[in-house]
Amino acid sequence: MSVHEPLHFVVLLGSLRRGSFNAAVARALPGLAPPGVAIAPLGSIGDFPIYNGDVEAQGIPAPVVAMGETIGKADGVIVVTPEYNYSIPGGLKNAIDWLSRLKPQPFLDKPVAIESASPGMLGGARAQYHLRQTFVMLEARVFNKPEVFVGQANHKIDASGALTDPPTRDIIAKQLAAFAAFVHGHQRAAAMT
Ligand SMILES: Cc1cc2nc3c(=O)[nH]c(=O)nc-3n(C[C@H](O)[C@H](O)[C@H](O)COP(=O)(O)O)c2cc1C
Questions:
Q1: What are phi and psi of 149, to 5 degrees?
Q2: CA–CA dist 64, 58 (Å, integer)
Q3: What is the CA radius of gyration of the chain?
Q4: What is the distance between the alpha carbons of residues 42 and 30, in angstroms, rounded to a whole number?
Q5: Which residues contact 31 (CB under 8 A, 6 or more apart)?
């Protein structure tokens, strides 16, 4: 692996809802990225069927293959997701399950950062810790701190869908800068092996 400049990150969004708070956070990311980092959305997880081994036996669906290829080429993935019932939303878990069936497995050794937003106080923290568990299985390189939990998100996003809360924007910018340094370190280490 070589060291890339600029870095190219892709965003995996865990909500399909029009007016999603998490989509608002995801839209804010390019404007909060440090110099030398480009951030682009992945396709919709809503294009994936529910995982079924019989469907897989007929061939992995084209949207899964396309997303896997895009993740494979990216320097890092930023997952932005709600929490459902203290865990990972089913649609996002389904997407990760499909992607995990690809060869090469796109999350293998892939730097991943996680953000979550919720109207609740904890901002989706429990979903993040379940996601980390899944990414252990997939051997992703999950970034640790600073963590981004956007609690009371309904008060931090305006009527136009813009993330306006200054402390939230600040912690996201800090996370993106630290994640970029983490990815560069990972690429340098890989280049030496
Ligand atoms: C099925 C379901 C379960 C939910 N469970 C949680 C939960 O465990 N924790 C939480 O903070 N919010 C929970 N919520 C509320 C979501 O945080 C809220 O709907 C949020 O707006 C979803 O994110 P989005 O705006 O990006 O779609 C749940 C919502 C749904 C629909």
A1: -120, 110
A2: 13
A3: 16
A4: 13
A5: none
Indicate the top mutation candidate among 25, 84, 87 to test ligand 1's pocket, ranked by most ligand atoms within 8 A of CB: 84
Which protein residues are within 6 Å of ligand 1, measured from CB? 15, 17, 20-22, 82-86, 117-120, 124
pLDDT tens digits, one per residue of 100-151: 999 999 999 999 999 999 999 999 999 999 999 999 999 999 999 999 999 9
Q: What is the pTM of this model?
A: 0.97
**Cα(72)–Cα(90) distance, rounded to whole angstroms?**
23
Instruction: Kindly give the distance from the C-alpha atom of residue 115 to the centroid of ligand 1, in angstroms, as a whole number.
Output: 14
Query: How, if at all, do strands 76-81 and 7-13 pair?
Result: parallel
